[in-house]
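Forwarding the complex inputs:
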Amino acid sequence: MLRRQFLASVAAAAVASALPAKLAMAATPKDQLVIATNMSTMRGVDPHEANQIESVEILANLYDRLVYFAPDNLAEPKPQIATSWEVSGDGKTFTFKIREGVTFHSGNPLTAEDVAWSLHRLVKLGLSPAIDLRQWGFNDQNVETLIRATDPQTLVVETPEVWNQSLILASLASSACSIVDRELALGKEQDGDLGRNFMQASDAGSGPFSLRSFRPNDVLMADAFKDYWNGAPAMRRVIMRHMPESSVQRLQLEAGDVDVATRLSSTDLAKFESEGGVDIQKVPGFGFYYIALNQKDDILSRPQVREAFRYLIDYEGLSNSIMRYYGVMRQTIIPSGLPGVLDEAPYKLDVEKAKALLAEAGLPDGFSKTCYLPAGTPYFEFAQSLQANAAKAGIKLELLVGDYLGKFRERVTDIYFARSGERLPDPHSILQSYASNADNSDGAPLSGLLAWRSAWDVPKDMQEQVAAAARETDATRRAEIYTALNQEYLESSPALVTSFERIDVKAVGKQVSGYTGHPTWVTRWDTVTKA
Amino acid sequence: MSDTDLSPTGHEARWQGLTEALRKVLTSVGVILTTLIGLLVLTFVIGRMVPADPVLAILGDTFDQTAYDRVYQELGLDQPLYAQFFHYVQNILHLDFGQSNVTKSLVVDDLARVFPATVELAVLAICIGTLFGVPLGVISAVRRGTWVDHLARVVGLLGHSTPIFWLGTMVILIFYAMLGWIPGGGRIDLYNDGLVEGPTGMLILDAALAREWEVFRSALHHILAPALLLGYAAMAYLSRMSRSFMLEQLGQEYILTARAKGLAQPAIVWKHAFRNIRVQLLTVITLAFCGLLDGAVLIETVFGWPGLGQYLTAALFYADMNAVLGAVLLIGLISILINLLSDVVYRFVDPRTR
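Prediction (whole assembly, two chains):
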């Protein structure tokens, strides 16, 4: 009997201790920001290696860069670590004055040497973020000559060719060009890895927050850097929690256990929008939902077939349903907020018109093709809508869902449906991908370009315009070129059929102010306050 | 009659016993090694056959060809398949599972972090499942056809047939969002995070060892809901199996004899019938526990529990083969060890297996 009583008491005590006395909803402290996110795509916190949307937001706060763009003004670069800069008459040499008195989290002073070494490191590691400098002609051999510190407060960046200066400044504002504590990183170097192993889960930055702890796919904590050159942030700590389930994020946001939810489903977002209580931020992203038609295919390469696909998308229906929180209708290739944007949307769902075009192409009975797409919302729902409309026009589409990016890069998919995303607040990187393809042969090293992956031999004049715009130094003239390019793309029958401009949605609790989603993903936490 | 003693001398008997024991040990070691090698080959081959490009999983979609080539080489994918496998096995022998492409940490460190979280959850769940499931099954069998039996069967059927992720979501909706009784997810309150870094990685145990009772309370509070849900699923399975085993025993002649002798019902059930289902029960409990070690992924996802299931799933999604192979090998090894342990326990509970 005694034993039974003992066991019962232990069990009761355990249950009692596990249940809170007061069953009240928790609220996050006023000096802490809790962000719910999905960390599964994150690849560490080395700014010269990680380039996923979640990583970039973290890096934006652990590190500083030479310049930055405010989320509401992507046309005007503002000083960050550089207090000022000058561009030489030939447009190739940028001279930056580095802010004095800035220290890294380690206490080491930040100098122009650190900036130069960081940019060398980015190029030499040659991982995905390196494209932000490599695309302008920097490489392992020339980077140390072209990017150099002339004194502790002066940095010189020479570009191998003349490019529009806003392109270079936009690149330098990206998370890829974060400034790393050279002394700390080299002190942790292993086998000449430039501190890469150390920086996978540690920070070597000077940003407003320093990394406290990081457990992949679990939690990341960052503490305010009290000696930040721009003043200590209001949030003492920022916590990012891995919550892959949208419904769990929603419930925690409702309960006040998180302040920001970043991966909510349309259903959950619609609920918040209808009930209020949180702010829904629709952050524009520099990319599009596209249907890539393989031009190596005899049928898909016919201009009328490419044109027919533009009439098989239910733009309006999708805008009001599936794509409501994922995209804004746009049939061109320059997103809103950038020079050259066009608001025209002449295409509408018109099955009869599509049928007529197919007949004109010599395919009155239609054809069958396979459409590959990534898993998840809204890809499948979008593709189902396309499949239904295509069927009415006689096109039988078989949908294959999964990781087929590799196949697309090998140019072996019939049709590939996905979305793109660029990090430079400039039309160039998007146009380069959608409308340039210098070598359409299978072995060409251009697998990063959507046009090449679609085997689309882009009209030569269009490609020349893309290159010319990147080199044009006059902003007005450049905008004119982009407008003309965009118009030409709209009127042509491209192999990459765009329909919606990408948006990324964040749900922010009403108690939070100053958390503004950034189109280039570098959302800052030091501007955040809580009521 | 000859006086020749045909029985072995004491020395010979000891030698024979030793040889027999050695043979059994060698057989067991052979079985373990064969299983592990089989597991290695199978997972390696499957990993290379999956139509996913691990380089793309690392780089994303925006990069140039130089970056692709660099990562391709770093992963050793430029080497022939047999060389990749040889290097992999060589590294395994040095307990080096390589680096995870997803977390960027050493796989060994990742496993040391996520596996204790899963063990903690699985142990608690199997304890709950066994403590409630076995008696429920036994009582259900003994009172066959009564309302108790029907109720137990309905409870068991619900646990067996209801998708656990749905149950998990409902539990969070009701007990977290509506009533506020349980936390929304994770292993511990953020404010207690990092206060205890114990030797086992199991927060409840480490907090108790460190006498950090606030951390202990927080950890217990967090584990209760996922453990109860997993325990319920285990209970459903174990109660059905216990009922079935017990019904079989209760129909045996020795039970009839016991009843004829006038033995009391509890004595018949627990001292006679139950003794004879212990080995079968041990087998199903072992299987259920092994299932919990790698199969709790849905509950781990719903409750944001950073365990092995989530780790393995993420690794599979992103073609992180080092992590997949490391995790599978660990699960395989633990399953083999648990089965070996249950073999040993059989010998104690059932003299016939000695």
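Chain A touches chain B through 63 residues (CB under 8 Å).
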